[in-house]
Design brief:
mainly alpha; 4 helices; 0% strand
């Protein structure tokens, strides 16, 4: 049976490419016995989905690296000045 370390490596690999059937079966068997690895795999898949969604809407900011409303900039500036 695969170790937890091997499973974590395979979970990461699975994001980039489809694993052979044998490896997928081994992973599924391991998940049935190891709750920690099952949760880890679920978290990694969720992170991957969120990152893909976030990057899909990403656009470069050309003029202002702090692309936020002017009132937010003022509040941030005042907050930083008050801390000093």
């Amino acid at each position: 049976m695969l170790s937890c370390r091997e499973i974590s490596r395979l979970v990461s690999e699975q994001i980039d490419r489809k694993l052979p059937l044998r490896r997928r079966i081994e992973m599924r068997l391991h998940f049935m016995m190891c709750r920690a690895c099952s949760l880890y795999a679920r978290q990694i898949r969720q992170l991957d989905r969120l990152l893909k969604q976030r990057l899909a809407g990403w656009r470069p900011v050309e003029d202002d690296p702090w692309d936020c409303p002017p009132d937010a900039k003022e509040r941030i500036t005042r907050g930083l000045e008050n801390r000093q």
